[in-house]
Amino acid sequence: MCEIGKSAYRGAEVLYPQPYGLITAGAEKNYPIDLSYFNIMGTAVGAHGVAATSDAAVFSNVDLEVAIGSKKDIKLKLPFIVPGLGSTAVAKNNWEGLAVGCAITGIPLTIGENVCGMDPSTVIEDGMVTHSDDLEWRVKLYQEWQRDGYAGTIVQANVEDTGLGVQEYAIEKLGVEIVELKWGQGAKDIGGEVKVKDLEKAQMLKSRGYVVFPDPMDPEVIEAFKRGVFSEFERHSRVGMVTEDGFMDRVQELKGAGAKHVFLKTGAYRPADLARAIKFASKAEIDLLTVDAAGGGTGMSPWRMMNEWGMPQVEIYSLLYKYADRLADMGEFVPDIAVAGGIIFEDQAYKGLALGAPYFKFIGMARGPIAAAMVGKTIGNAVKSREVPVYISRFGRTIEDIFVTSTELKHRFGSEFDAIAPGAIGLYTYMQRIAQGMRQLMAGNRKFGLSYITRDDIAALTRETAEISGIPYIMDVDAEEVEGILNS
After folding, report:
1. How far apart are CA 283 and CA 275, in angstroms?
2. Which CATH architecture fits 66-192+237-373+432-437?
3. Looking at the whole model, is its pTM more than 0.85?
């Protein structure tokens, strides 16, 4: 059945990826330019960050640790962050793998919007959250596996979360030190949405102030639901209304409530909104600005919106670099910046960092870590049920044999290894693959630390790409140096 045909009898249900909440999906649109339109350069001379000798300049010596924040007191093992995984089923169902995996990897994990609002156990007194089993579980699971002070959990808030005082609760009761204001994401230009299969829960959400379609209080809707005409309600979040005064006030409120660090996450909005984001972040001297590009997200967004909305990756990164560089030239504070938007492998991560060097400090990744955690969890279930597929069983039939990082993790955690969820091992193993790939690429450029990455580490493969990004066209790279060598 084609999309038109299914829309003729299921209507708005067809807007979303299916089966909703069980999969992660990304935009399928081919943009005129993407990160593949750059190549990573290499060199045969010198080294930055280690001695320029063949014995020292080995890729395993590349240091991928980074410290971020206005005081550089948030340390990460790797230059990655998992942004905004909130109340969607795909996030909650894989949270053990995500939280434990990120913690043992030493990268931050963001608890996204609407977790408290969606949690039936949430206690609300005088309109403010005083307890949530779900949020507490998510925070403490990460904290339990966090080691040596690396990274941490970030609690994000949208319009409804702010009204419920979710971040204040997280700071005061759960020991959360990092909070994030949310203006949007790269997958959609509306608020977050989930599907709800339970009538009572849909009614609870409406009573808590959420937008719920169709109206779960309407007797005719209730009757249709019970007859099976439809099986899911849609819960939507409201869009925010950004003002400079409102932003500044909220940053100060959060700091006054005890937040040690304040972040801002924004989506693939038009250039004026990008300018607002970095200017407001500069004025407030926040610790991190994350900018998402079109096609990002965890795969719960309406298909057409995910494909057709927002500023694409190369374009928004290039503008962001220009805006950051202008603020720096003006002597203004430039917050640390992370960029996201469908990045899943090491070459894309390196190109993203180089495109915005020295301002882009690390990369946001959501779908990749979710997929890795899902695969790890699936393998764990297969091992438990003794039904390991043949394409996996050729590596073994136990967790220790199948996951290539198990020896390292057993050495690190000893008897605790058996308590590490297979989903977490999957995420950790995936991130180690990316880390080694990054080290190899950086070593080829003779860059043995993240701070040495520069924009001339990459070259544009077309003149149009060069014009948009400001990165030199590949035939123009090193032109002056070449003349000097040939004329010497």
Report:
1. 12
2. Alpha-Beta Barrel (3.20)
3. yes
